[in-house]
Amino acid sequence: MRTGSKHDIKDERIDGGKAFDWGRAGETMHPIEIPACYKEKFELMHHEEWKLKVHFTRESWNGRMKACRGIGASLTPEEIENWEREHLRMLRENAPEEFDILHFAAMAELRKKD
Question: Which residues have CB under 8 Å from 84's CB, separation 6+?
Fold first, then answer.
């Protein structure tokens, strides 16, 4: 089901085996980067990356976006209020009440070196 390439992960259960494409975000599915400070005492034994659908409602997606650093941590309360009003309107006009957003998950198994 999965291929070895981080740029061409396929999974029949999620998308019928189509190549993974994040669109314009520039993100790719990739292994967890192990910081150099861990590599001295640990070795990477195994890693996996896979796609998963995360379920949202319009309201929960709005909350997820509002929590992003580009909104909640960057805008004034008035700007957040304006953004939220416009974002909820856009969701009502363009998104079903409930929907899935494609994400990827990754895990890494490390073993302490002898």
Answer: 62, 66
Query: Distance between CA 66 and CA 77 in Å, rounded?
Result: 11
pLDDT score of 20: 54
What is the spatial distance between Cα 31 and Cα 28, in angstroms, rounded to a whole number?
10
Buried b (16+ CB within 10 A) or exposed e, 17-54: eeebeeeeeeeebeeeeeeeeeeeeeeeeeeebbbeee
* Closest listed residue to residue 52, CA positions, set 84, 81, 20: 20
- The mean per-residue pLDDT over the stretch 62-74 comes to 91
pTM over 0.70: no
Residue at token pair 């070795």? 43
CA distance readout (Å), 91 to 69, 79, 98: 20, 18, 10
How much is the mean pLDDT over the chain? 83
